[in-house]
């Protein structure tokens, strides 16, 4: 299964990332790039992008980078360091690169930059495979959901 096929299956079910206006710009083996424009709804009382939205973008890129093998993989621990504020209207780009995978555990680094390439945040995610596949036949998907979909 290709990384692109796995990403397409994940993206189809990822209502959270799509709902925040993210776009899946690139995916490859152990790599993913997602972007998002900072909207008025994302700006906090300081007039800058709320850190939770930046975290969500980095976390989504992390998810696509560490699920490329079609083994269901989730976050076990994540940390982010904010370096610069993101402002209304900025296009943020999160680039995730899987650094290592040993057994069921992995480590993925994500950089979040603005449209000019300025570093906004650094994120490190620790992943854990939990069993099962992302791409499934319709019959398997119905069983996994416990019913008719």
TrEMBL record:
<dbReference type="InterPro" id="IPR052723">
    <property type="entry name" value="Acyl-CoA_thioesterase_PaaI"/>
</dbReference>
<dbReference type="Pfam" id="PF03061">
    <property type="entry name" value="4HBT"/>
</dbReference>
<comment type="similarity">
    <text>Belongs to the thioesterase PaaI family.</text>
</comment>
<protein>
    <submittedName>
        <fullName>Hydroxyphenylacetyl-CoA thioesterase PaaI</fullName>
        <ecNumber>3.1.2.-</ecNumber>
    </submittedName>
</protein>
<dbReference type="GO" id="GO:0016289">
    <property type="term" value="F:acyl-CoA hydrolase activity"/>
</dbReference>
<dbReference type="InterPro" id="IPR006683">
    <property type="entry name" value="Thioestr_dom"/>
</dbReference>
<keyword id="KW-0378">Hydrolase</keyword>
<feature type="domain" description="Thioesterase">
    <location>
        <begin position="46"/>
        <end position="120"/>
    </location>
</feature>
<dbReference type="InterPro" id="IPR011973">
    <property type="entry name" value="PaaD"/>
</dbReference>
<dbReference type="InterPro" id="IPR003736">
    <property type="entry name" value="PAAI_dom"/>
</dbReference>
């Amino acid at each position: 299964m290709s990384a692109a096929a796995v990403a397409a299956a994940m993206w189809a079910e990822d209502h959270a990332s799509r709902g925040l206006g993210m776009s899946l710009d690139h995916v490859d083996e152990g790599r993913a790039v997602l972007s998002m424009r900072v909207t008025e709804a994302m700006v906090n009382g300081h007039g800058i992008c709320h850190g939770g939205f930046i975290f969500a973008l980095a976390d989504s890129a992390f998810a696509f980078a560490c699920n490329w093998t079609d083994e269901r993989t989730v976050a076990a621990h994540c940390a982010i360091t904010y370096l610069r504020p993101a402002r209304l209207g900025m296009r943020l780009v999160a680039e995730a690169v899987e650094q290592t995978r040993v057994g069921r555990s992995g480590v993925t680094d994500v950089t979040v930059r603005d449209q000019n390439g300025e570093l906004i945040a650094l994120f490190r995610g620790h992943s854990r495979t939990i069993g099962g596949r992302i791409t499934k036949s319709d019959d398997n998907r119905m069983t996994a959901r416990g019913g008719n979909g």
